[in-house]
Specification:
By secondary structure, the protein is of the alpha/beta class. Helices cover about 30% and strands about 20% of the residues. It has a 10-stranded mixed sheet with strand order 9-7-5-2-10-1-11-14-17-18, with helices on both faces. It has a two-stranded antiparallel ribbon with strand order 3-4. Helix 2 (about 75-85) crosses helix 8 and helix 3 packs across helix 5. The radius of gyration is 21 Å and the shape is globular.
Length: about 400
């Protein structure tokens, strides 16, 4: 039976997906980025102190894993170059494969993202994700990785984006960008050079060709279930399928028969950007610190609160409740246990605060997400590195 692992955030992102992906990875494993794009910030710290915040590359890269940017991923050549330079100073990078149908963010999408006050009102990272998706909904302005290898075609597409799409989109947004930015040839040429750099450092490969080469595969998700584009928290969401949707599609194409699905959560709730956060608690920053999620002009402050158990469990169960031939084996992963004692405070509902022993909380979550009670292990992390992650038997709970 062909098996693979999946890492999915159970909340609003920032749960510890990078840590769990690093834990599951091994040399020569293949980590598949199946959603989102450069707005991801997956922090990995090695036992010897190397730290990197992953955006494009597999969070298993520090262990020698290879990266695959699927057709559901949004690549940003500008930020790819920046991260490649940072990462290769720390590690000998594995192969980076990219699907020819992977869509690309342009500087013009980033410009639109920066000035769109409407987006900013419901939260944005400022790297052009929403605008990239919007533009690629119109085939005449779509830019995929496979379009970049013929420079005349590439320049033609970029010209259409600059001089046809930009005015149309700006009119829709009732916004203006200084025309010198749109007409700036240096921005255009730098972007084309960034694309050429990305071409040199990656290998274009269809999923069907790459999926059977590596025995161990890990699907690494970005953001979290409560930021899924179809979640009822819309419009305070991301333009991405954050759960199993894309994974199931790719797994079916690769003949994968079983998925170990790791749903990751911190011991408390977090949110970066605007939108609902039940049980928000402004006192958390006094005892916690986060080097990755710093306050910025697009997202504001990093927000903290108590977990709402009912919402989290229902989101996980909804994600698992699908008609598929693939055997789904869910597992709960709880991170940041080093930031509390042996008890956890959370809410079963908005007004019902509960405190219970940590092991009982883990057992209840794990049993709740599998009605057949076949879940027999959970992952728990008591620190920032893979050595701090343990697979614990629920039988002892």
């Amino acid at each position: 039976m062909k098996k693979a692992s999946v890492v999915i955030g159970a909340n609003f992102g920032d749960e510890g997906k990078g840590l769990i992906t690093d834990y599951l990875s091994s040399p020569n494993s293949l980590v598949v980025r199946f959603n989102g794009g450069a707005q991801a910030g997956h922090t990995v710290v090695t036992p010897d102190g190397i730290r990197h915040v992953f955006s494009h590359f597999a969070s298993g890269s520090l262990r020698g894993a290879h990266s695959f940017l699927s057709r559901f991923f949004i690549a940003n050549p500008v930020l790819f170059v920046k991260e490649f330079s940072e990462l290769t100073k720390k590690v000998s990078l594995g192969n980076v494969f990219i699907d020819p149908k992977c869509i690309l963010t342009t500087p013009y999408d980033m410009m639109l993202n920066h000035i769109d006050a409407g987006n900013r009102s419901h939260g944005t990272c400022g790297v052009g994700i929403n605008e990239t998706v919007k533009r690629n909904e119109r085939p005449e302005f779509s830019l995929k990785y496979q379009d970049t290898f013929f420079e005349d075609e590439l320049r033609s597409i970029l010209s259409s984006i600059r001089y046809k799409y930009m005015p149309q989109r700006l009119a829709e947004l009732d916004q203006k960008i200084p025309e010198n930015l749109i007409h700036d040839e240096l921005i255009l040429e730098r972007f084309i050079n960034d694309i050429k750099f990305m071409q040199r450092k990656t290998q274009m490969s269809c999923w069907g060709a790459i999926s059977n080469i590596h025995e161990k595969q890990i699907f690494e998700g970005a953001q979290g279930l409560q930021l899924d584009e179809d979640h009822h928290f819309f419009p305070h969401v991301t333009r991405s399928k954050t759960g199993l949707d894309n994974v199931i599609t790719l797994a079916n194409e690769a003949g994968i028969e079983e998925l170990q699905v790791n749903y990751v959560s911190r011991i408390y709730a977090t949110r970066h950007g605007n939108g609902p956060l039940a049980n928000e608690d402004d006192t958390f920053p006094e005892i916690l610190s986060c080097k990755t999620n710093l306050e910025n002009e697009y997202q504001g402050k990093f927000r903290y609160g108590l977990l709402e158990m009912t919402d989290m469990v229902s989101g996980i169960m909804k994600d698992l409740n699908r008609d598929t031939r693939i055997n789904l084996q869910p597992r709960f992963a709880l991170t940041h246990l080093d930031q509390c004692n042996d008890k956890i405070s959370f809410c079963r509902a908005p007004e019902e605060r509960v405190t219970m022993p940590m092991n009982e909380f883990i057992r209840q979550i794990s049993r709740a997400i599998d009605s057949q009670k076949n879940v027999d292990t959970a992952l728990v992390s008591k620190g920032p590195t893979r050595n701090d992650v343990n697979m614990e038997s629920l039988n002892g709970y």
